[in-house]
Amino acid sequence: MEAVLKSLHDNQQLAMDQLFEFLRIPSVSADSAFKPQMQVCAEFVQKAMVAAGLQAEIISTKGHPIVYGERIEDPSLPTVLVYGHYDVQPPDPLNLWTTPAFEPQIRDGKIFARGATDDKGQVFTHLKAIEAWVTSTGKLPVNVKFLIEGEEEVGSDNLDCFLESSKERLKADVAVISDTSQYGDGIPAITYGLRGIVAAEVKLTGPKKDLHSGIYGGSIANPANALARICGSLVGADGKVQIPGFYDDVLELSAKEREQFAELPFSEDSFLAEIGSGAAFGEAGFSTLERRWARPTCDINGMFSGYTGEGPKTIVPSTATAKITCRLVPGQQPEKILSSLETFVESQCPAGLKFKFTSFHGCSAFVFDPNSVWITAASAAVESAFGKPPVFIREGGSIPVVSSFQQILGIDTLLLGWGRNTDNLHSPDEHIHVADFHNGILASAHLWQKLSEVSR
Ligand code: BES
Ligand code: ZN
Question: What are phi and psi of 129, to 5 degrees?
Fold first, then answer.
């Protein structure tokens, strides 16, 4: 371990320079204009795996390529499957970035770039830790398999197919993902539960083109009025989702878990100040942490219809569209929720409008046992690097592969996030703290040692 730590210390600057190179590749999975850059990025990841002492290859899919690498030291050692994603969210709105999204820059101890925390910076910590182990000791204390994909930010549509066809190859004792956050500044965390998600788009079409609202208004259904009514019906004033059957399968929080949430340091005022909101709002009868981590939601992500430019324009628009997502909790089934949503929305569509419902990605929620031997080992690794034991938390975001690992490969995942929720993921000025990046590498280096000591 001494030699590994020395190597990490000596190579801090190099690790940053290489991360910068990774961050300069605009690997935006959602936008087909960036397709060539996805291949370039996959090649970068493959090279980084080889440099870390892994055998690695690029595997093409119907969408963006997967990069897979492994190093099998000894079949009797535990095998760890590390997952991450090299794709990033679109950088828009571009004008809100202080410096361009794909030109990484350090300011105030933070590295600014799209993907800095979600998820390139975090993926890179594991590659650098493995590299230090291999170059300084010639071996690893565990077997590792790395699966780094390029479609996480668009729902990992082609990943399950790869998991199904590679079950034997991906066989592992436990998975590790660093794509979540610490609990707060100076409070490292291990996440033992995430919410699931379903995503859909509703489009209402009325007259074949926009019409004069004076001549025709009031005589036919207006798609924008109808959609507003429908969207307004999704969540009640008490914060409850109104889709019939929505809560039927929800596993309620235990009294013990509610107590554990309540014991975490949390200030509603700082939370609101941080995000710039005037007041908390959500399902009646639940705390903010409960609402964010363990209660299902229905959110409109975007609505567009008619004229949205400057000044008035008197029309009945031809179409109206809304993008909707529901975050799910354990017990709820994505397919069932999607079909209840579709039925509820369609039942309110007025006569004369064409109704179109399109569904996108989906995945279920999960919770793991926070007392597992793996979590205990990971906890010690996090403490060695961050100087404090991690708190155990759930999170409201989704990582589709985690439930696939559970369902297809039969393994649990350790969610070890080095970033922070305030790192502006999916927003302008995304960043990772330089200290979190280096501590993440350190925690990863300790993790392999600790996991090798777990008796299975
Ligand atoms: N890294 C996030 C998920 C995350 C962030 C979990 C912070 C917990 C805390 C991930 O890259 C992400 O954004 N996932 C999407 C998934 C969706 C596109 C299927 C999400 O949650 O919106
Ligand atoms: Zn993300």
Answer: -65, -40
Instruction: Return d(Cα 69, Cα 127) in angstroms, integer.
Output: 11
pLDDT score, position 456: 75
Tokens of 413: 């995942």
C-alpha 407 – ligand 2 centre gap (Å): 22
* Cα 196 to chain centroid, rounded: 10
Residue 174's beta-bridge partner residues? Answer: 80
**Six-digit token pair at 12?**
């801090």
**SS3 at position 16:** helix
Which residues, in sequence order, are CB contacts of 157 under 8 Å at separation 6+? 62, 63, 151, 361
Give the separation between CA 186 and CA 150, rounded to whole angstroms. 30
* Residue pair 87/11 in contact by the 8 Å Cβ criterion: no
Mutating to test ligand 1, I would choose from 29, 123, 152 the residue with most ligand atoms within 8 A of its C-beta, which is 152
CATH of span 196-250+296-363: 3.30.70.360
Provide CATH code, domain 2-194+365-452: 3.40.630.10
Low-confidence residues in the chain, pLDDT < 50: none
pTM above 0.85, yes or no: yes
